[in-house]
Design brief:
heterodimer, A: mainly alpha, 7 helices, elongated, B: alpha/beta, 6-stranded antiparallel β-sheet, 21 strands
């Protein structure tokens, strides 16, 4: 009876830890649970704080939105791995608490200093597994951070406009999901191939990265 | 039943029922080897069906963002790793295979490596001289030539300067590119259409010759009768989800498997452990494990300008090392940087002043195997970096550090566990040479994969003969890097294409 009660309490605690008390993210993110949105946002804030040489923060970069797009573009097995990654980081503080009061709270419930300490703990761990977890988390967050146009513009890394020559292959392949009838090009539309002129360093930016001007 | 006419490409939206085709030759996989085989066999008058699991990508489909691009063009979303020693390894899923998203590096296998293959694996016609006509034919078709000086960019030229200062031989990389503009976007698809990836070079040529190309079809089994292959069977799969639908059955007089070094052995295993009297199918898995260092220079490097990988050094080839320049989408580049918080942001701000150079290693003692997953055609890759091979990689880091400082770098970021995140002088970098490191201390990557269906003159010790023909089947061929008996020590694409060219001509001569 006592054992059953203890198990029930533990189960209740586990369910509460995983599900209860997450803030409303404001909008629904398809493919991400509320707790995952909280984890991604809180990790983004710790990993990429506001200020410094790149003004945009991880929060400015809407990393939950990026992860939502990445999940949608990924196969089911990949999505499972990403969910697992978020779960391990969010609740890994149970096994690897940070020092000080509240060190065992969920990652997303900790203050920024504790979160940075938790991330450093993963990054510098002697355990290879923990370092892999950190590298994986940082990889997806960094990809999202760099998908934020102001970040790459600030670093001079935004892609430029490149006019793709129309070649024979463009007459053969439709866009993914469409039928060949949608191609709408003929041999008359072929253009000269690239002449190998280097891209100008001050060329116009790709529309997806250009600064919006009123 | 839909019909697929000679010279036609079939895409996912067109499949509305089961499909059955007949051909002289069915080629499974449209990467560099499958595409070469399909074109050469078509030119020889054969009716050819080329089958690819991925869809064709046109420039409007290219995703410039590194993460999203990998999710769309790579198997397992680009997150595939080996077990044992954990190392990421990627395989593309697209018409044209890896050629769509690689940096087009073309190197002939060194003569001393090919000689070793001949000696150690009882091969008689695989010397450099034997392969030269095939190398030349491929080079002529896809325009293999040195990276032009005007598109190298400072990132590549600094590598040259560093090597020259130290007296290390170096050279511009030969690539299958015509009209490069130095966009540095090889890994996400060349928007300049300068890279002669298979989807814009060999495959259109095969189509002109009358080949039929089926995209979004995953071959699940090789069909056999006795000691002859009779065709393949598979399913139409939806792009990006892999959800299967209609059945596709292709009967053919000859079957060529060019699905890649990790997929071909799985296909054989799923087909009833085919062609495996030697017990070598899926064995002997080798990589060129690679390590990289980022160097920070005092002046801007403008790293996004310049050929993705434009310079290399084969100076240390006999020590098991090939060194080269590297660039990747900024998001992927930034993943290398250590730390978090403001320290990480400060390092990100250094990217415009940075260059990344890498070394790939010949690790013949580090072996693994490929096994099929249950209810999936994705492979399980077990591989372990042999402790005796670790010093080859740490030597690569040490040499790269020397080149960086010789080129004027103010700091290097080695990304090695147990070593300071930033090293500011050659003296500090000596830790890379002197400190004993383990495999798990290194950040590895291995995208060149070999040997899982290796060629060997002795049928008891290899899966295929020198022409790529399976020892156990008179009309089943393998034409991907799985047939390499050992790693080639340099980027493998050109050699794999040359071998596929030779196999195709052999098949054509068989009548």
């Amino acid at each position: 009876m006592v054992t059953a009660s203890l198990l029930a309490i533990a189960l209740g605690f586990a369910i509460a830890r995983v599900t209860v008390g997450y803030p409303d993210p404001g909008r629904r993110h398809r493919g991400l649970a509320r707790g995952e949105v909280a984890l991604i946002s809180s990790a983004a804030e710790a990993m990429y704080p506001a200020g410094g040489p790149i003004p945009s923060s991880g929060l400015d970069a809407d990393l939950p939105g990026y992860l939502e797009r990445l999940m949608a573009a990924s196969r089911p097995q990949t999505r499972i791995l990403l969910h697992l990654l978020f779960f391990v980081v969010e609740h890994g503080t149970l096994m690897f608490p940070t020092s000080g009061r509240g060190g065992m709270r969920r990652f997303s419930s900790q203050d920024v200093e504790h979160r940075v300490a938790a991330l450093d703990g993963w990054a510098e761990s002697k355990r290879f597994f923990r370092r892999v977890v950190f590298t994986s988390l940082r990889a997806v967050l960094t990809m999202g951070y760099f998908a934020h146009p102001p970040v790459v513009r600030r670093l001079g890394l935004a892609p430029l406009v490149i006019e793709s020559p129309i070649c024979e292959a463009d007459l053969l392949y439709p866009r993914i999901g469409e039928r060949p009838e949608s191609i709408g090009l003929t041999a008359a539309d072929l253009t000269a191939p690239s002449e190998g002129i280097p891209l100008p360093q001050d060329g116009p930016l790709h529309p997806g990265f250009a600064e919006l001007r009123p | 039943m839909i019909s697929v006419e000679p010279g036609e490409v079939c895409v996912f939206a067109q499949y509305d029922r089961d499909l059955a085709l007949e051909a002289d030759v069915v080629v499974v996989g449209s990467g560099p080897t499958g595409a070469v085989a399909a074109k050469e066999l078509t030119d020889a008058g054969k009716s050819v069906v080329l089958v690819e699991e991925g869809p064709p990508f046109v420039p409007a489909e290219y995703e410039i963002d590194g993460g999203l691009s990998m999710a769309r063009t790579m198997r397992e979303g680009g997150l595939r790793t080996t077990s044992g020693t954990i190392m990421p390894t990627m395989q593309a899923i697209a018409l044209g295979g890896g050629s769509l998203v690689n940096s087009a590096i073309c190197n002939r296998a060194p003569a001393f490596i090919l000689d070793r293959w001949c000696t150690d694996f009882e091969l008689e016609r695989t010397t450099r001289a034997d392969l030269e006509p095939h190398y030349e034919a491929v080079a002529k078709f896809v325009g293999i030539s040195p990276t032009p000086e005007n598109v190298l960019g400072r990132r590549n030229l600094l590598f040259r300067d560093g090597c020259n200062a130290l007296g290390y031989h170096c050279e511009p990389i030969y690539r299958n590119v015509r009209g490069c503009r130095g966009s540095g976007e090889c890994f996400t698809g060349c928007r300049s259409r300068a890279k002669q990836s298979m989807d814009i070079s060999y495959i259109p040529a095969a189509l002109r010759g009358g080949a039929r190309v089926l995209t979004s079809v995953r071959i699940e089994r090789v069909l056999t009768e006795g000691w002859r292959a009779t065709g393949v069977v598979g399913r139409v799969v939806k792009p990006f989800t892999g959800n299967p639908s209609h059945q596709v059955r292709i009967r053919a007089k000859t079957v060529v498997l060019a699905a890649g070094c990790t997929a071909t052995p799985v296909l054989l295993q799923k087909s009833g452990n085919l062609a495996n009297r030697s017990g070598q199918v899926g064995e002997n898995l080798q990589f060129h494990p690679g390590v990289a260092i980022m160097g920070i220079f005092p002046d801007p490097v403008y790293p996004r300008f310049g050929a993705t990988q434009g310079y290399q050094s084969r100076h240390f080839l006999r020590d098991g090392l090939k060194l080269e320049t590297l660039w990747a989408p900024p998001a992927i580049t930034a993943v290398r940087l250590p730390g978090s918080g403001m320290a990480l942001k400060n390092r990100l701000a250094d990217i415009p002043y940075s260059a990344i150079w890498d070394g790939i290693a010949t690790c013949n003692r580090s072996l693994g195997r490929v096994r099929a997953r249950r209810r999936s055609l994705d492979p399980i890759l077990s591989w372990k970096l042999h402790p005796a091979d670790v010093p080859i990689l740490t030597n690569a880091l040490w040499i790269l550090a020397q080149i960086f400082f010789a080129a004027g770098a103010r700091t290097i970021v080695p990304g090695v566990h147990g070593i300071a995140p930033e090293l500011h002088s050659l003296e500090e970098a000596e830790a890379l040479r002197d400190r004993p490191l383990r495999a798990t201390d290194l950040v590895l990557a291995g995208n060149h994969v070999f040997c899982t269906t290796r060629m060997h003159g002795d049928p008891r010790l290899g899966v295929v003969d020198e022409m790529g023909r399976c020892h156990d089947f008179e009309n089943l061929y393998i034409a991907d890097t799985g047939i390499f008996p050992q790693c080639p020590s340099v980027n493998p694409m050109w050699t794999a294409m040359a071998l596929a060219h030779r196999s195709a001509h052999h098949i054509a001569q068989q009548g």
